Amino acid sequence: MRxxxxxxxxxxxxxxxxxxxxxxxxxxxxxxxxxxxKQALLAKFKSKPxxxxxxxAEREAMRAAELKKVRHDREEAKAAARAxxxxxxxxxxxxxxxxxxxxxxxxxxxRKERKALTKAEQKTARDVRYAARKARQ
Length: 137
What we know:
Blueprint: H1 5-10, H2 13-20, H3 27-45, H4 56-136
């Protein structure tokens, strides 16, 4: 697409000469300009100072206090769980001891009954022998 002739004619000759004219700059000046551009580009990526919050220290103290409270609560919960577990172990040990004691008592009771029967049988046998001896005499 071509520009209309009126636009081209409206440009002045001085504008074209400025655009086409090379700047008379030396090598050192071009290096300085390139270095400044590079520094400006690097400055964009540098971290900028942030606005410090005036309540930062207070919030940090509140967070620390909340963290301390949470840790304390967790420790109490763990201690309570340990105590419950210890009580359960103790209750199981006592129940087992009671079962063993009951079994031992039952065994002792059976032995006493056997001995009592044996004594009664022995007494009956002794009485029979005594009566037989008396009958012989």
